[in-house]
Amino acid sequence: QVQLQESGGGSVQSGGSLKLSCAASGYTVYCMAWFRQVPGKEREELGFIDRDGNIRYAASVKGRFTISQGVDKKTLDLQMNSLKPEDTAMYYCAASAWRLCQRRADLPYWGQGTQVTVSS
């Protein structure tokens, strides 16, 4: 099993920044990712890092959001800059203990989520 704990959510004005953190415990994780979800919409992948350190970003956040993994590969931060009201959502961290993980479907472990609210 893998347990994930997100932190760092809160409220910020448009144009501001927030940094979310995700801490993993339990099994060794090989992939980690950040997602967000707005009520009534599908969960959106924001950034994904695989076991080799390759990172991909969603087009909606590329250039504004940056994910970074701790040296021990047990933490994953999400630095969010130039925030917009449409970034308001519940943000989730996800992870996999499978070495060949590459996709969202390969991520069985999820955190409880942390709310981010961006006001105009």
Using brief descriptors, characterize the structure shown:
11 strands; mainly beta; globular; four-stranded antiparallel β-sheet
Descriptive report:
- The chain is mainly β.
- Helices cover 0% and strands 52% of the residues.
- Strands 2, 4, 5, 6, 9, 10 and 11 form a seven-stranded mixed β-sheet that branches.
- A hairpin with a 5-residue loop joins strand 5 and strand 6.
- The chain is globular, with a radius of gyration of 13 Å.
- The mean pLDDT is 96.
Please give the structural blueprint.
Layout: E1 2-7, E2 10-13, E3 18-26, E4 31-37, E5 44-49, E6 55-57, E7 65-69, E8 75-80, E9 89-96, E10 109-110, E11 114-119
Parallel strand pairs: 2-11
Antiparallel strand pairs: 1-3, 3-8, 4-5, 4-9, 5-6, 7-8, 9-10, 9-11
